[in-house]
Amino acid sequence: MALVNEHFLKLPGSYLFSDIAKRVNSFKVTHPKANLISLGIGDVTRPLPPACVEAMRRAVDEMASADTFRGYGPEQGYPFLIEAIIKHDFASRGITLSPSEVFISDGAKSDTGNIGELLRWDNSMGITDPVYPVYADSNIMCGRSGVRNEDGSWNNITYFPCTAENGFIPEIPDHRVDLIYLCYPNNPTGTTLTRAQLKKWVDYALANDTLIVFDAAYEAYIREDDVPHSIYEIRGAKKVAIEIRSFSKTAGFTGVRCGYTVVPKEVTAATIDGERIPLNPLWNRRQCTKFNGTSYITQRGAEAVYTPEGQRQVKETIDYYMENARIMREGLSEAGFKVYGGVNAPYIWLKAPEGMNSWQFFDRLLYDMNVVGTPGVGFGPSGEGYLRLTAFGRREDCLEAMQRIRKRV
Ligand code: PLP
User: Fold this and answer.
1) Parts of the chain with a pLDDT under 70
2) Residues ≥6 apart with Cβ < 8 Å to 365
3) Distances in Å between the alpha carbon of 344 and those of 53, 185, 291, 385?
4) Is 124 in the pocket of ligand 1 (CB under 6 A)?
5) How far apart, in Å, are the Cα atoms of 362 and each of 268, 374, 379, 386?
6) Which of 186, 221, 249 for mutating ligand 1's site (highest number of atoms within 8 Å of CB)?
7) Separation CA 277–CA 267 (nearest Å)
8) pLDDT tens for residues 60-119?
9) How far is CA 29 from CA 9, 15, 22, 34, 359, in A?
């Protein structure tokens, strides 16, 4: 008899998006003529940059001919993409990386979910609250989160609340935590850390021998100078941080699938006897055993992001989304709402009016304005009283939604 990994049975159901769908569907039954606008969508809507499409077409043609056909590629990714990443994403910011420190993958979700395999199951861990759910769930699956408390939190997870009261800046813990996940620019709050604020986390990690997993999936949306694009802009970070990036929100690759993880040679973890073990060869081993590489066609598409046309086209699309974000931020502020995020990220974090919780506010927007958001409490208890809106929709929808909101408030 095969015994099941019972940690999976502890996973809380992922009810958020099905609960939203249920409420939206019952609204539709009673309001069949309503023109609903969804600002809750977490997926991009603009098509791929033409430079990427062209590069992928050329790659398909190569695959169609015996002379240029490619089978299995390197598990770590093709050198042409790794070199483009190092040159454009890191060297341009004064960060030196060697090709063997960059691992191409099929996206940031896989890497953020899998990276914990390198660490013992009983490390303590910390996450911000609210949070992208993969960090907690992937650790629950291997038992690292410990036992579930009555309030739904886990006894081996330290939570760093991020609310308007602390300016969405997580407080440095007053005790040691082995593994910490940080996501900046942040999903869901759309907020960022300045260089000085991120430095405090790196200094904490250096002083406490903590490993940071830094998820920079929204790096391309950063607009302000003082916001670091990579954790390696902070001195000492290469000793303590693994950085994960994605082409999903940068270049519309949510359906194409490509991302990468940087595991610097200096970053280590300890054996129970205190011996320091570099994580880079471990991740390499993990990938070679369990991953057979991102497709050649996809990697050629991702490489094209770094060409001059690719850069121009990617910027155009991101500018489009960020203009949506500006319209929403300003429209909602004018309507009297407290609005956070949306300056260096495609997410707007909207405070519910006094006395309303996330779901009540969700219903109010749905019924009074026919606008759909995502209740903040779905991302963690500190998200209660907020709603997440995304800038990934169509311009017309953003404008129309703001008009409705201004009229009805
Ligand atoms: N990390 C964060 C913070 C995200 O919000 C998302 C997607 O929404 C991902 C990672 C997943 O990215 P990918 O499409 O590369 O798997």
Assistant:
1) none
2) 371, 372, 373, 387, 405
3) 27, 7, 33, 22
4) no
5) 44, 7, 14, 9
6) 249
7) 8
8) 999 999 999 999 999 999 999 999 999 999 999 999 999 999 999 999 999 999 999 999
9) 34, 21, 11, 10, 19
d(CA 331, CA 325): 10
- Tracing tokens 């060297």 back to the chain, one arrives at 91
* Residue type, position 9, single letter: L
Encoded tokens for 252: 């519309």
Q: Determine the Cα–Cα distance for residues 44 and 253; give it in Å rounded to an integer.
A: 9
pTM of the predicted model as reported, rounded to 2 decimal places: 0.97
Q: What is the pLDDT of residue 29?
A: 95
Half-sphere exposure of 110 (CA within 13 A, CB side): 20
C-alpha span between 389 and 328 (Å, rounded):
9
Atom 7, ligand 1: residue with shortest CA distance: 109
Are 168 and 187 within 8 A, CB to CB? no
**Which has the closest alpha carbon to 40: 57, 20, 56?**
20
Q: How far is CA 254 from CA 27, 211, 294, in A?
A: 29, 28, 14
User: 108: Cβ below 6 Å to ligand 1?
Assistant: yes
- Whole-number Å distance, alpha carbon 384 to ligand 1 midpoint, is 22
Which tens digit of pLDDT belongs to each residue from 323-373? 999 999 999 999 999 999 999 999 999 999 999 999 999 999 999 999 999
114: nearest Cα among 282, 277, 272? 282
If one counts every other C-beta atom within 10 angstroms of the C-beta of residue 390, the result is: 27
Among candidate residues 245, 253, 256, the one with its CA nearest the CA of residue 222:
245
Q: What is the dihedral of CA 292, 298, 300, 306, to 10 degrees?
A: -120
The reply to whether ligand 1 has any atom less than 6 angstroms from the CB of 254 is yes
CA dihedral for 260, 264, 84, 295, sign (positive or negative): negative
Whether the link from the prior residue into 12 is cis, omega within 30° of 0, is: no
